[in-house]
Request: fold
Amino acid sequence: MRKASMNIEFFKARRRRLAQLTPGCALVLPAWPEQYRNADMHYRYRCESNLYYMTGFDEPECVLIFRPGKNPETVMFVREKNQERETWDGFRYGLQGAKQVFGFDQTYSIQDFEKLAPELLKGCEKVYYTLGRNREFDHIMSRVLIAINGGWRPRFSLGLPPVEDANSLVGELRIRKTEEEVESMRKAAVISAEAHIEMMKATKPGVTERALHGVFLKSIMDRGADTEAYFGILASGNNATTLHYRFNEDTLEAGQLILADCGAEYMYYSGDITRTWPVNGRYSAPQKRIYEKILKVQKDCIAKVKPGVPHMDLQRFTTQALTEILLEEGLVRGTVDEVIRSGAQIKYYPHGVSHLLGLDTHDSGALQIKGESRAMESGWCLTIEPGLYFPENDPNVPAELRGIGIRIEDDVLVTADGCEVMTKGVPKEIDEVEALIGANFR
Reply:
């Protein structure tokens, strides 16, 4: 029998915390549907993050109904044991195994969800379920809600429980990481950092972006990662001016920079690092000038991360600081305030400087409350990633800067009085980067 990936008591504790927020209500969390390349070729399955967060259960074709204060409280619908399917697809816990290993109060066959769910949800003051994320399951939930209402469609109901967003509810728990979660995130960060170093060591003209991606994948797997947290970006030269470049097919050339945005997933938790380094081991004068300026912005922004600071302050600071660089380089005109009001800086800095990090690379949790930026709290994990991008076909960009894209990204844990850079193990200072890659040519 497979083991649960983390101590089941962690998941039970999460359900107890959620129960305090939702007395008299019910939470419904379905698994993602399995994906197929064709009728019999599976993609690797990855559990829906909220479902994993609340249960630790990572099989497809399952649904959690959590009813705080009711008996049974934790009801899980799972696949039944099936020897033939297990021969083809692998182990299944089945009803008894799921109940025994994961501590659910009651388990039923997934085939019985639509029949049993109406009675389980009847009488709940509110149902938390996220519409629009799993459209296949939305149809099933619609029928369940109609059944609760005695067959009448919900819009005619006077007694139907209101449906509210489960992602927001669970996200309120997920935004603050426990020590157990932080341990997994630190491990993901270290694995990701060491893999970036391996890519730097493998860099030289003639190597392909795809080959470097392969170095990253081997490195994280050798170090115990489950998979990559997202499809890695390996963008050389002008490719780095495309924010989500995905082809990874070009060959590195001397004089170029390579932007690597890659992260490992460990125990479902994500690392997310970006570094930009010279293919031939030395930054050119223009590359070095822009890189140093962006690095200063990144370090200054990291220094602002601490409890009580509104998260949006990081974006305001970064936008202003990068706009000042654009003015210094002659890429925009006017004062800083004038440029920002016009939005002219967005052409060269089109993204945010920070996002939450956790079970998802862009993790759950509200960053605004009633339209106001939320203050950072101890236990938050987030990225800091300023960047500037100068496409080679932009006639307004000086010739020496065309085709340069630079982003520097680290993973940061908010602590009681400041922050911890979890990805500090991968070099970003110019002398350290040049020393590491320059060794490839000695």
Remarks:
- The chain has 13 helices and 21 strands.
- The chain has a mean pLDDT of 94.
